[in-house]
Design goal:
By secondary structure, the protein is mostly helical. The chain has one domain. It contains eight helices and no strands.
Length: 219
């Protein structure tokens, strides 16, 4: 595995020399909710109120969009966030996008995507949904955005909430193993579904024991 320093503290490092850009690289974890919950509501309104879809059809397409998100989450985490660039600029970009999170996983202000990144990406995906689903696009896109919000909130919770039992504990252990034991597996954060499909499942967690930053060892 790669040799890399991993911070075990809730520390935040400076990423940009420019104070303005640096300020906007820190994001409150509630920001995605404030931005995208109204968008989801509007998409559902478009689907039912303007496109005339039934509640059942809307729910089915919403679920399809949610499923599509889980695949996108897996693919982006595995092939984009864990891509190993060789150029100096490539390494810098990779660090800004995801490397900083692996080096400083407890940084609470860099666990959700800043709006300057998430909004343009959302617009690109909406264009793709329009191309594939046409007039039906608002319903699956609402599910897609809901999946993204689940990902952001679960990701934050696995790093900063105790999650001592049930599914929450299992997801926390699963993601902590990706950070502190084996970052070549366990790419699903909100769902391990595609890790099972593509055989990149993180190793079994042991009993009810938490994997935490105190378990860190050099990767």
């Amino acid at each position: 595995m790669r040799q890399r320093h991993i911070s075990v503290k809730n520390e935040s490092i400076r990423m940009f020399e420019n104070d303005f850009i640096e300020r906007f690289s820190h994001v409150h974890p509630a920001t995605p909710l404030v931005i995208f919950l109204p968008v989801i509501a509007f998409m559902l309104y478009l689907a039912v109120g303007q496109r005339g879809l039934s509640i059942g059809a809307t729910a089915g397409l919403f679920a399809l969009g949610l499923l599509i998100w889980t695949l996108v989450e897996y693919a982006m985490h595995r092939y984009l966030f864990h891509y190993g660039p060789r150029s100096r600029w490539g390494k810098r970009l990779h660090f800004l996008v995801h490397g900083v999170h692996h080096d400083h996983p407890q940084d609470a202000t860099r666990l959700v995507a800043p709006p300057a990144f998430s909004l343009p990406v959302a617009l690109v995906f909406y264009g793709l949904f329009l191309g594939v689903f046409g007039r039906l696009a608002p319903a699956p896109f609402a599910g897609f955005l809901f999946g993204y919000l689940c990902y952001d909130m679960i990701h934050y919770a696995t790093h900063h909430f105790s999650m001592k039992r049930g599914v929450g504990l299992w997801l926390k252990q699963y993601h902590m193993r990706h950070h502190y034991k084996d970052d070549h597996n366990g790419y699903g954060v909100s769902s391990p579904l595609w890790d099972y499909v593509f055989r990149t499942r993180s190793g079994d967690v042991v009993g009810s024991r938490h994997l935490t930053p105190s378990d860190t060892h050099a990767e």
